[in-house]
Description:
The chain is of the alpha/beta class. It has helices spanning 3-8, 12-16, 19-35, 54-58, 71-80, 116-129, 143-153, 198-207; strands at 42-45, 63-68, 85-87, 100-105, 130-141, 158-160, 165-171, 177-184, 187-194, 210-216, 230-237. The longest helix has 17 residues, at 19-35.
Amino acid sequence: MDWFIRDFDDPAYFDIYADKAADAGTEGPALARLLALPPGSRVLDLPCGWGRLRPHLAAQGLWVAGGDLSRLNLRRHAAEQPGPLARLDLRCLPFRPGCADGVFCAFTSWGYFATEAENQRQIAEFARVLRPGGILLLDLAGRNQLRESASRLGDRWRDFPTLGYAERVRWSRDQRRILTERRCQGKTFRHDIWIPTDTEVRTALAQGGFGLEAAFGALDGRAWAPGAERWIYRAVRR
Ligand SMILES: C[S@@+](CC[C@H](N)C(=O)[O-])C[C@H]1O[C@@H](n2cnc3c(N)ncnc32)[C@H](O)[C@@H]1O
């Protein structure tokens, strides 16, 4: 089974990422500002997870539909943030071509697939469902800072007792993917995410039919920098 099917569909996921619920209060309004679409725009939140960012998009007057593969996340989303929702796979979106003004892809939700072709397929699907001139906001972890912090910490297991889990972070042998193992509630989870270079992100966007309008290095909209914690790309569908 693909890691992303198992890891995100287990109740332990909500414990491991419990602090992201509080982070939504700062991330949501800031990312909605960087998306910068006028009220009334149709935005697809892909993947939407449990919908923690949805109210902040809606607060900007945006019409939001969410999509995710995890039934567990979608159930929580429907209970806490009711709205249009679809169970879907990012490689094959169940939406008509050109139906959306914006695609909102937050919290390092690209690079999950094992092959380059599948990861590129996700970008191509985003392009397909956007109208020409539509906007993709792609919010990724900055590769250089991730590598720096991983090498500082080493690959030993670290305990987070208040959060109830232990974690070990390693890079794949070819240095392209980050492997994050977590032990929680007696189970082991293993995220395996391709962390692209800036050049790889820009190439994938261009090949997918996007023009890069801006790249940011933080939620406050400062310019992209190699050592920034977040790499946030605002791309326009050609
Ligand atoms: C890190 S979470 C981010 C969710 C949301 N963007 C947020 O900021 O809270 C990643 C999400 O991607 C979903 N996901 C993973 N693989 C997927 C796939 N192949 N198709 C659709 N959703 C997927 C997971 O179920 C999970 O909810």
